[in-house]
Structure formats: structure tokens, C-alpha cells
Amino acid sequence: MLKVEARDKAKLIDPLYTSTRGFWMLLAVLLAVLGWAVYMYIQQLTLGLGQTGMGRPVYWGVYMVNFIFFIGISHAGTLISAILRVTGAEWRRPITRVAEAITAFALIVGTLQIIIDMGRPERLLNAIIYGRLQSPILWDIVSVTAYFMGSITYLYLPVIPDAALLRDNFPEDGPKWRLRLYTILALGWRGNRTQWIRLEKVIAVMALLIIPIAVSVHTIISWILATTVQPGWHSTIFGPYFVIGAIFSGIGALFIAMSLLRKNMGLENYFTEKQYRNLGAIFITTAAFWMYFTYSEHLTLAAGQGIHEFPVLASKLWGPYAPGFWSMVIMMLSAFWILVTPKFMPSEEKRPRIFHPRIAFGSLGLTIVMALLISNVLGLPVPDALNPLLWILLFGSLLLGGLGIATWFKTRFVAASVTSAIFVLISMWLERWYIIVPTMTHPYLVRYAEYAPSWTEISETAGSIALFMIMFLVFFKFFPVISIWEVAEGRVLDQEAAKTGPMPMPEVSSTARKGRLGFRRTE
Amino acid sequence: MTRWSMVIDLEKCVACQGCSVACRMENNTPVIEPEQAELGRSIRWNDVFPMPVNPTEETGEYPTVRTEYMTRPCMHCENPPCVKVCPVQATFKDEEGLVRQNYDRCIGCRFCTVACPYGVRYFNWYKPEWEEGMEQYHNPDKIESGGVSEGPAVRPKGVVEKCTYCVHRLHKARARAEAEERDFRADEYVPACVQTCTGKARFFGDLDDPESTVSTLSTSSRAFHLLEDVGTHPKTTYLGEG
Predict the structure, then answer these.
(1) Residues from chain A contacting residue B42 (CB–CB below 8 Å)
(2) Is B84 on the interface with A (CB under 8 A)?
(3) Of A3, A345, B29, B138, which one is least surrounded by beta carbons within 10 A?
(4) pLDDT of A398-426, one tens digit each?
(5) How close B114 comes to chain A (CA, Å)?
(6) How far apart are CA B17 and CA B196, in angstroms?
(7) Distances from the Cα of A436 to the Cαs of A110, A218, B118, in angstroms?
(8) Could you tell me if A227 lies within 8 Å of chain B, comparing CB atoms?
């Protein structure tokens, strides 16, 4: 009989057997969205892909964007938790289960996008029967399958001790089939020494194996584009660019998922500031990498000015795609700002009045008004002479607002992480859109085209998000949100660490502050 | 070995679009409604269009516009990007250099249409349709047998199709030579567009035969290929104007 601590039982095990009305309502809404998407898909299947907004030369559209996006999200989990496990980051313990679940479900939804995008989905098996290993699509099938198998295994392995816990602490009045489910999944786990050693060994091996597979998955997706000679895609940076983007959006999804669970299940003691701060640090790093790669990618196109490549870039910088492209850039910069600047801001009691949230939001409003006046969208008669003043006001209010927001976010680490994660998720979707669509609409020898997704494509996108959330919700109705045994193990390690006593402090120099700069000696 | 190739003399081309029409009739390409055509869903294996397609600074402005008519079948590249990316070998380069497409195997992933820099591959967004009664006048020369359907065979929805240099005519010519128990000669086979060309601007033949018309014309100083810098090595050669 395996025991579980009372606090874990109340927070993690008991909610598995009770569902609130909100849960059922959310599930119903999601199922409705999914049902609609299925209906639209059946329509597309019977009539043809003409139901989408695609055509020649835009042969790939939203489905491909969604595919890259969801597979990107899947890098949340396995990669993050594997890297953290391998590097022995103890703070990972509470978040691994959520991360790994995101991986498995995002992979399912991502793969589904390809099937939705196929003209003859019933011939899917041709890819196995007649598969040509020279085709990047086959590489993709191989790596995504390996990644899916790997991440399902990797999700399941840490579930084994938890399933045994659930089996041993099964409530009297619980449904018998669930007890049977846990018994089967526990694989006769009794928690003896041999079993623990075996489990740790397998998890360690899987963690090592999964990292290269995860890297390969998104690299290969980028190679689908980069191995063609199309303007804007034929680029060597795509591999690392896509991998970084994938990890980036993955952590974004993880932030949102864990914050929602934290709020609704009261998991403040599990997802603590430590998890947010440390994940935030990785998030900031990937953001920096992402900006660096984005800049390099666009700089080479801009400097080269190839007659075929440059129109692709121009359409993003000042052409029809400019509004979305620059929104993406602004959102990414905001996400970076929201996570980085609060670290440098004074704490709430020390801050000057000027950093009051009210002033901050007011300033941001003023920024938007200035932007509207400068771009002259409203068609107001603004004399050109005023423009320099407007620009000064715009940057001034932007800075004031940004700094004010940063002080507000300083104490609200969850709000900061979630806000920046939402920005990042939207921007990463847009990023994939601005990789796929501008190249498709600016081909070599076909007249430049336009592309707008049809209702079918929008429905499938909504349905995909709904399906992802349904799988997530249902999974966590069966299994605890947090790997109970890993957290318990972490507590034991913490206790052991606490026994070693305080760290010896280095000796303090007697040199006074100014003396350090060489001005004056005190003695 | 035979290597089929086409040479198009733009000096002689009058842009009558006869090749386009002949191709349509020969290969049973469907018609679509105008609003579908707006979405870029018309299928023209052999297209006639102004070059450059998209105006650039180099095109010039009236009255010094530099634009010419171009006619474009499949390039039947020596190094075809479409074949390289196909996951199921639905499109393949045969031993005579023809880039062919098997509608029965295509899974409709459209990777080839994306990879082709010439835009000569077309997708069936809907089930193909014809004007009332027209489907009774389809070209009967279809290549259809277990798991293979090519050429003018009527395509189902959701697969990719493309110019095959009228490969069914080659099959037919070979079969005739065999039936008559004699050797097949390269000049027994031309695609429909070459046969119909008003200005006699199109030439077709075996590039491996140094005596053939296409071999001689390919060495002309006027000869060029579309997008020579993308490394596809097309077998459709153009002879430039003037």
C-alpha cells in the first residue's frame, strides 16, 4: 500500500473524482466547436479542398501554418523536461507532467493538420507502402512518429508510480473500471528498490534519447520548406530558427496551461514563483535567440535584393502583410519587455508616483492615439508640421507606459508570464504564417496572388485548438496534474539539503564603497 | 537512350494559344467557373502568359515597356524538384527523361506543386467538370491499368496533374511500331501542342541524338532556359527573340 501525503491527496487526487459544473460546461463548449469542425471537414472531404481559400500558387495555407504551430507547441514538454532532467534542475519536478501532456496532445493535433490538408487522406498509407526516403515528408513521418512514440512513453513512465498511488488510494465509491485502469497502468508497481532503480534508469535513457529526436522534428519541418528553391525559403538558418521558435512557443503554451491549472485547482504551492522565474529565464533566452534569428533571416534577404526574394520581404515590411508582420514584432518585443524590465524596476513601496498603473495604462492609450494620428488612419486634418511632436509624444508615452507596466508586473509574476506567453503564442502563429504565405503568394513564374483562409479553414483551426484542450482536460481528469512521486522525491532531497546547514559566507572586505573605486581608503 | 526535349522558338510564336487549346482537348483538362479561376484554380498544362509575369523595375514603363509572350509546358527538368520531394513516387522521371504523374498514387499533399519553381503543376481542388455533354468527347487515349493512371485519364479530385509531353502518344506510337514489327523512330511521336502550333514554333525530339532538330536548336546562341539559376536543368528550351 503506497501512501500519499494529505496535502497532495487533497489538491491532486481528490479533484480527479469530482467535476465542477464549469468543467462540464467548458467541455460541452469545446465539444460543440469540435463537432462543427468535424462537420466542416466532412464537407471538405466530400467536395474537395476547393472549400479552402487555397489555389494556385498558394498551394499551402492555414493548415500548414497550424501544422508547424502545433508541432512547435509540442516542444514544450518532452524537450524542456528532458533537458531539465538531464541537467538536474530540481525545480522542474512540478511542471513535467503538464509539459509532457502538452507534447503528446500537440503532436496528435499537429499530425492531424497534415491529414486535413491532404487531397486524398485515404491514401495516407501510400506514404508507407511506396514511401520514398528521399522526400522531406518521409523524414517528417519518421521523426514525428519517433517523437510521438518517445513522448508517449516519456509521458507514461512517470505515470506508473502515480497510477500505483491512485490504485492504492482509490476511493470506496469510485467507479470500478477506473480502478482497473489504474491497476493495469501501474504494471504491478509496488515501489520496491529494484523497480525504482529500473524506472530511474529508463527515464534517464529516454530523456537522453528524446532530445535529439525533438530537435530533429522541427528541423525537418523547416527542411520541408528549406529544401525547395522557393524565394524566401531556401535558407540555411531555417533549422535552428524553427527549433528555437518551437521551444519558445512550447514554453508559452506551458505558461498558459500551468497558470490556468494553478488558478482553477489552487496549486499555488506547487507552481511557485521559482518555476515561473526559472522558466521565464529560459523564455527570455529563447526570445533573444528568436529575435536574433529573425533579424538575420530578414537581413540577408534585404541586403541581397534578389529580384525574386526581395518582393517576399517587401510584402512583409511595407506591403500587404506589413500590419500583421509588425504586430508580430511589437508583440514579441512586448513579451520580452514584460519579462525582462520588471527585474530592474524598484519594488512597489519604493517606486515614484509616476509609475502608478493608472498613469501607465493612460500612457499606453496615448501611444495608441499618437500612432493613429501619425498613420492618419482616421483621416483627421493633422498638419505635417506637428509630426515631430507626435513622434516625441509617442515614444515618450510608450516609454512611460512601458516602465509603469513593468513596475506593475514586478510583483505579479504569473500575470507577467501569462501575458507574455499569450503574446508569444499569437506571434509564433503569425511568424509561421509570414513564413508560409508571403512565399506562396510571391512565386517565381506565376502572377502574385492573395490568400485569405475560408470559413472551413478557420473552423478547422478552432476545432484543432478545441481538440487539444479537450484531450488536455480529459487527461487531467484521469491523472494528477503533478507527478506526485517526483514532487515527494524532491521534498526528501530538499530536507536532506537543509540538513547541511547554512553556506559559509565569504569574508567581508574592510574597504569602503568609494575605496573600491580607488578614491579613498578608510583605514 | 532517348531523352525527349522540346524547343520553343519565341521568334516564331504568335501567342495564339493554340497550344493551350490543343493541350486541353488532348489531355481532358476540366473547365471551371470564373469565380474559381479568380482563386487561381484553372488548370492549364500549357499556359500562355506575358513575361515578366510580375512587373518589376526592369520591365519599363509605357512606351518603352519590355514584355513578351511566353508559352510554358512542363520543363521536364533533368533535376526535377517535384520528383525529389514526392513522398510516394507518384511523380517520377522515367528512363526517357519524361517527368510523369500517377494520379492513382498521388496523396494530394501538394509538396510538388510548392516545390516546382515553374508553377506547372496543378491540383484538382474539386471533382473535374465539363460543359454539358463535353465529357462524351474526351480523348479516349487514357493510360489506366492496375494502380496506374496517367496522361489524359480523367483525374479524381484531390490529386496533382501536369504536362506529360503527351506520354500517351509515345505509348501509342511505340505500340504501333511494335504491331507493325519495326523499330520505333523518334519522329513518330510529338505532343499535341507541337503538332498544332500555328507558327511552327515548337520542335520536339530526342536530345541524345546529335542529328535531331532539338539538339541542333539547343546549341543555338538564342537558346535559353527558364530560371537557369535554380539548378533544375530543364529540357524545355527556348529560343529568345531577336
Answers:
(1) 56
(2) yes
(3) A3
(4) 888 888 888 888 888 899 999 999 999 99
(5) 6
(6) 10
(7) 16, 15, 18
(8) yes
What's the rounded Cα separation, in Å, for the pair A397 and A365? 9
Q: What angle do CA A405, A409, A411 make, to 5 degrees?
A: 140
SS3 label, residue A129: helix
Query: In whole angstroms, what is the distance from residue A223 CA to residue A214 CA?
Result: 14
Probe site for chain B from A135, A138, A141, A234 (most B CB atoms < 10 A) = A135
Owning domain of residue B121: 4-239
Q: B122 at the A interface (CB within 8 A)?
A: yes
Q: Which residue in the set A126, A229, A307 is minimally distant from B105, CB to CB?
A: A126
pTM of the model: 0.92
Q: Which residues contact B17 (CB under 8 A, 6 or more apart)?
A: B48
| Strand ranges inside A13-136, DSSP E | none
List chain A residues with CB under 8 Å of B122. Answer: 56
B138 and A CB contact within 8 Å: no
The answer to whether residue A136 neighbours chain B at the CB level (below 8 Å) is yes
Task: Give the pLDDT mean for A201-212.
Answer: 90
The x, y and z cell numbers of residue B109, run together, are: 499533399
- Residues of A with Cβ-Cβ distance to B35 under 8 angstroms: none
Residue with cell 510554358: B72
Indicate the class that CATH gives domain A6-230+239-288+453-492.
mainly alpha
Q: For residue B66, what is the domain's CATH number? A: 3.30.70.20
Nearest to B225 by CA among B53, B119, B72: B72
- Summarize pLDDT for A428-441 with one digit per residue, the tens: 999 999 999 999 99
Interface contact B85-A136, CB threshold 8 A: yes
**Does A124 contact chain B (CB < 8 Å)?**
yes
Amino acid B58: pLDDT: 67
pLDDT for B134: 85
Minimum Cα–Cα distance from A140: chain B residue: B87
Domains contained in chain B, number: 1
A353 close to B (CB below 8 A): no
Q: Where are the domains of chain A?
A: 6-230+239-288+453-492
Low pLDDT (below 50) residues in chain B: none
Question: Is pLDDT at A486 greater than 90 in this prediction?
Answer: no
Taking CB atoms and an 8 Å limit, are B39 and A53 in contact across chains?
yes
pLDDT of residue A523: 47
Q: By C-alpha distance, which of A137, A148, A157 is closest to A70?
A: A148
For residue B228, with 0-12 CB atoms within 10 Å meaning exposed, 13-18 middle and 19 or more buried, which class applies? exposed
